[in-house]
Design a protein that fits this description.
Blueprint (H helix, E strand, L loop, with lengths): L13 E9 L4 H11 L11 E11 L3 H14 L3 E10 L6 E8 L1 H11 L15 E6 L3 H10 L4 E6 L1 E7 L5 E8 L3 E2 L1
Antiparallel strand pairs: 1-2, 1-7, 3-4, 3-6, 4-5, 7-8, 8-9
Length: 186
Amino acid sequence: MAADPGDGRAPGAAVTIGISIPVPEPFGRRLCEARLSLGDPLAASIPAHITLAPPTVVPCAELPGVVDHLLRVATAERRFWIRLRGTGTFRPVSPVVFVALAEGIEGCERVQANVMTGPLQGDPTFPYHPHVTIAHHLPDEVMDRAFKELSGFRADFEAWGFALYKLGRDGIWRRDRDFTFGTGHD
């Protein structure tokens, strides 16, 4: 039987990864439910998160080097608090409504800058702005509703580390492994 090109065994196989700080429960579930209620088709396939590295295609042969890099970054970092408060938008530049960070921006920026070195270094499409997406590429009236309905959202949690996610062939992002600040890999 031939190897599945998406399983990492086939020559030239690649995987799409993302690096993010997961939004913990119960907050993550609440944000996913809100995104689902808005009719966002991505809500069921993307857990609530703060992106550190956008979707990136990595040859499977290079993935161990990426993991080693992420271990070094996590080991050198420290925990910090994140406070989510209210909503924001990138419109008209990008059709996104998000929950904003009131605290933890500096920590996210520091970790993101370190993650995006070495094997993940690249030219970003947009300047980095930590946030939690709640509506993406939806009709304007739905984006307006998201902005209004979640304007009172509040959540406080400790950023303990970050996670590596892999995009499945079914279009669902799955958490593959965690990297704990100060200790590296869990």
